[in-house]
Amino acid sequence: MVTDPDTESQRRPLDRRQFLSGSWDARRDIVESQPVDRRESATILVQARPERLADIECKLQSLGGLTISRCEAAGKLQITTVLTESRGLSDALESITALPGILAATLTGAKFSEDIA
Questions:
Q1: pTM: predicted TM-score of the whole model, two decimal places
Q2: Domain check: are 18 and 66 in the same one?
Q3: What pLDDT does residue 8 have?
């Protein structure tokens, strides 16, 4: 049996014969671990139509997980997010850009960690 010292704690031992014969499946040998409480914190800049700003603010607040940090009358908004889902950040960005009156939404900074409070 051959083991990889870097991932020995995460994988089962590799059976050399199975590997050489082509019957070894790497996906099957990954040991399931406990899910990690990973959080994503990000800043998103949004350009919106100024005449629809009040309506857009209400819709953004109803999405959940978003905080409007800054809002200018010209239609510029700065949004801060703290999300825990694995695809939370990309889903939030898609939800923002799908709102009527949003001209653009840009991710300007992100932090991925297990201990963001």
A1: 0.61
A2: no
A3: 47
